[in-house]
Amino acid sequence: MAAVIPADPAPFAFTPARSALVVIDMQRDFLEPGGFGESLGNDVSLLASAIGPCQAVLAAARAAGMLVIHTREGHRPDLSDAPPAKVERGPKGQRIGDPGPMGRILIRGEPGHDIIEALAPLPGEPVIDKPGKGAFYATELEPMLRHRGIEVLFVAGVTTEVCVHTTVREANDRGFRCLVIADACASYFPEFHATALRMISAQGGIFGWVSEAARVTAALHPHREGKAA
Ligand code: C5J
Fold this sequence. Notes:
By secondary structure, the protein is of the alpha/beta class. The protein has helices at residues 28-31, 36-39, 51-63, 84-87, 141-147, 160-173, 190-205, 213-220, and strands at residues 3-5, 12-14, 19-24, 67-73, 99-100, 103-104, 127-130, 152-158, 177-186, 209-211. The strands form three sheets. Strands 7-4-3-8-9-10 form a six-stranded parallel β-sheet, with helices on both faces. Helix 6 packs parallel to helix 7 (190-205). The mean pLDDT is 96.
């Protein structure tokens, strides 16, 4: 049964069974002090606004029986999957792989690499570990979606103009229809957040659609598992 969400640039029609919620990189390394985000000079408190809306859409997607996928950005402990061009950013001693208050920065298995407790994946929800900005690059995300017949992605997470945007662009080129949930995304640069969202919905939705958590949850409500008409 199709549902419609008010969105920019036009109403967005979707079928929950063919849709997935993808929550991008809501990790301690980006949202908490002492991680990768702060090591690059950012005010990590700016990302907190996305947590409540992410919780709301996660609850609604789970209740509707939709596929929920989480991603984490990070690297192997030996850094063999981390390009030097990425590692050589930021102040020495606070770069990817360096020790920090939450373990080695942006390294898989370290406390900082974990998804924040408020948005912890439930058992059975796939978690994609990605070495890049985009969730499709060097990951199993695309076959995972194709095998389940997914055509639509609801995208939330951080940061809007970096990993969210890159993932939406990758998805768009692969033929997925993406709806970005504006208030469930955030950036260290509020002006980049606003512009990145405009870039998605401009030109007739060149990369996708943009809406808000309350609209998404309202559209999913009648589709709670077993209640969809
Ligand atoms: C960044 C991300 N900003 N998840 N990563 O480096 O957006």
